[in-house]
């Protein structure tokens, strides 16, 4: 034996081994079994070694999972840790056997990308200098404190002499062979068979988890850079390299592997919310607005080179050598969120108070008085939170006022003008009429109506006192009437009854989670959230402490009949508040009650029979063209809860930030407009029609009568209403499509609140029947907003993941396709729930992927066209159509 050869079973190392033997060498062969090597790759190793008559050493370590996790945390991939493990074990083996050289069969792209790319950029081409630099880098690499150095024997690297005694030889540094020639050789002259049990870019089954994490956190495939070098070196064609990077990743399989190795997905998502983004630092006097800078650069740079942050400095920091000191530049993530206006400081007490509230709720460091609520990432649920928080500080507002005056300056000018009658602070008890959404739920006649839950998993930085937690939960039960509701079926249908305060106490369970990681806690939370309630017995609220988990984790779950997304914000904020009071020895106190469930139900009944709602009947019943059904892979299948499955797609952090903060300024749109446009386009390509009838969900707390206030009322108020959205004829640009969908959504009267009231509460039976007979939508779209803003401020309490839904396994589903979107940990996640009895998984994955691509295209278009144009709904009193508006704006130099 004259050298050590590293063999993975892949084509590159297998070809290198065969060529090494043909050159007359007799290597000792070393391979690593990391617990996830494919059976096909292992079989290749065995066949090659046996056919060549060589000795094989298989390296292993019980610390491999810890090394994988460490590598994911440091590098967003599993490869770095795996490579270092191979190098460490092989160096020890080489010294033990007295071998002078270790030959690697890394692909050429990996050699160039990992070893010499930066040197080439510095115009260093001398081989001796390159070798010296690589050795110094290897010394630092092997002495770095990480999971490898903590779990393996690395004493060999303490002495510099080992790097002279044992040299690494990269085979493809000295061998130039085309991919076709390599594969032909392996097919004709070696017992090598391409593994069929793994992806094309790897022989390691866990590498798809590394690829998935890397794409989520870094925004690109972790083989992209090596493959780009393959293309530059002429060893791959561009299209072939791109095709090879197009791995199909099974997200459920990835999740199982990440759980198996103990990777804390939830914690890392929070730490990596704002990953790398392009930033521009500038010195200018006077300072131009970021929108001006972006527009200037957009005319000169490709879209991918446009900065996402513009940070103005008094002077650029410099090193002693008079170069820019990059380490001294402020972190863009801590700067003000990007908007289309320059910062203007608050000028009055009301502006200062509102700027502080906006910053707290929207999660930005600084808010100027001319900043637009929607450009800062605002949505209808955050709107409600801002109004509630402002009222707590003595400023009277309404949610509608934020829509009408979406800047701090505009809102401050009307603050205090909205008068509110003080609602009764007496707790509600007795019979309460069902809301439209509750009636809609019971209309489905599910066989297990008690199995329709919503839950949240909380992370808390400090340990919790169970007695204080129980006290806080029972305080919520007494304060929020809906939590004391029970439901029973009778001759007149389902009835809702609210018990007196003190009638119930919240069940507080303890589950031993001391040995669980974050992923195991999340999995347990989903299981526990699926436990049904008895609707006739209260309370419909439950709490489970995952005892011993670090950080502390608490699962709070309730039946959907008594909660919705806004309710969760109220409950979580109140729970944290009361717990802090009790833990500090103070008396628990909560903000005043707002309008009760009973008062709202009566008001909604009156609204259904009033002139405003009845005037909307022609809108809801207007004739519509025939629409195509969704194509089915299995016509006639049962669309039931037992067959439900979910496919998720995620927008990366950079594009999500752009969607929240930059896209709204382009066409004065909101996030749901952009999602709906992308959805109509994606489903239009699928169905072959450019129109789609879908149901939209809203929070259902719109104003229907003066003096009503549901800002802090807990319950299920969600409004569901149908809308038919059509793309313009022909093939307009993405901006034209977005403007068209925006106008159609703005045409919905009062955000759809009257539809459910008319459909379920109207005293006129013919109205109820007319609306019930309308064509059913096959698709539902719901945007939850920014879920991780539910617990604002530095409270030490936060969500450990998105809302959890557990809806049982018996009974019909409401739609063939449900699309739920929300922002969590800085990324937009869109869940596509479908029936496996109607659609194949591959079909939904294809459509969901196309939706994501169209969404990314639309975001990119809006970034190229900041402030690109208005639509007639932006000027509701003007009576203009789009052509007239464009002509008018052109006169004033404002046309797109």
Give an overview in words.
- With 896 residues, this protein is α/β, with parallel strands linked by helices.
- It has 34 helices and 22 strands.
- Strands 9, 12, 13, 14, 19 and 20 form a 6-stranded mixed beta sheet that branches. A 6-stranded mixed beta sheet has the order 15-22-21-18-16-17. The chain has a 5-stranded parallel beta sheet with strand order 3-2-1-4-5.
- Helix 2 (39-52) links the parallel strand 2 (27-32) and strand 3 (56-59).
- It is globular and about 95 Å long.
- The termini are far apart.
| E-strand count | 22
Number of helices: 34
Mean pLDDT across the residues is: 83
Main beta sheet strand tally, sense and closure = 6 strands, mixed
What fraction strand? 5-15%
- What structural category characterises the helix and strand content? alpha/beta
> How far apart lie the N and C ends?
72 Å
Low-pLDDT regions: 267-275, 417-422, 892-896
Question: Tell me, what's the shape?
Answer: globular
Helix content: 40-55%
Radius of gyration, in angstroms, nearest whole number:
31 Å
